[in-house]
Specification:
Distance between the termini: 34 Å
Low-confidence stretches: 1-33
Structural class: mainly beta
Mean pLDDT: 85
Number of strands: 15
Largest sheet: 10 strands, mixed
Shape: globular
Order of helices and strands: HEEEEEHEEEEEEEHEEE
Helix content: 10-25%
Number of helices: 3
Radius of gyration: 17 Å
Strand content: 35-45%
């Protein structure tokens, strides 16, 4: 069911207007490629992302900073996992969640996003969690993940869901060491905008143009 839910999010991302990219120069090594890129979103939002891919371990470290400009509305970022994962102790409240994966051939997409309610609905639903980024503020994050795929990946990218923050839409704020975390309805899966990096070519050690 998780794979089906993730597929829904990927479809929404594909149909959205393609994001623009500002590519920065970067050095790379055979087993520790480093590449930085900037993804431009709506209302002047910018997402700076750095990939550090370890070929031998087939793992990636992602460092990112999301900048919400002064003139933009508050922003909700769906990188904090879901309430069920927190309740069963697999994730600390407020921490960055592990990404979901969608694999197509040798392409692997990592996703931090609000997912739709599974069908049939579980007893403890995976309610999406988001962190609020105020106008003029920057959200910094970092996560590491092994790339789980049956084939050796050749391309990799990361997408994160965001949407304007509306207190009528979000509820049950909870304090954490990483800031205040809010619960979102499952309708956020359709309302969010996906900010996606371009594909990272593992063999070349950099993002595609």
């Amino acid at each position: 069911m998780l794979r089906a839910a993730l597929a829904v999010v990927v479809t929404a991302c594909t149909q959205a207007a393609p994001p623009s990219y500002e590519k920065e120069s970067a050095t790379s090594a055979p087993d520790a490629a480093r590449t930085k890129i900037t993804v431009a979103g709506k209302n002047g939002v910018k997402l700076d992302v750095e990939f550090r891919y370890q070929a031998q371990a087939r793992s990636v470290e992602v460092n990112y900073q999301l900048h919400n400009p002064d003139a933009a509305p508050p922003l909700a970022v769906f990188d904090r996992g879901d309430l069920h994962t927190v309740q069963i102790g697999r994730q600390k409240l407020g921490a960055i969640g592990q990404p979901g994966f969608v694999t197509e051939g040798t392409d692997v997409e990592m996703l931090h996003a609000a997912l739709p309610l599974p069908d049939p609905a579980p007893t403890s639903p995976p309610t999406p969690l988001a962190i609020k980024v105020a106008p003029g503020s920057t959200l910094s994050g970092r996560f590491e993940s092994e790339i789980w795929s049956t084939t050796v990946p050749k391309r990799l990218r990361w997408c994160v869901g965001v949407m304007p923050f509306d207190e009528k839409f979000f509820d049950a704020p909870a304090r954490s060491a990483d800031g205040q975390v809010w619960s979102a309805p499952f309708a956020a899966a359709e309302a969010q905008q996906m900010l996606c990096t371009p594909w990272f070519d593992i063999a070349k050690g950099g993002f595609e143009s």
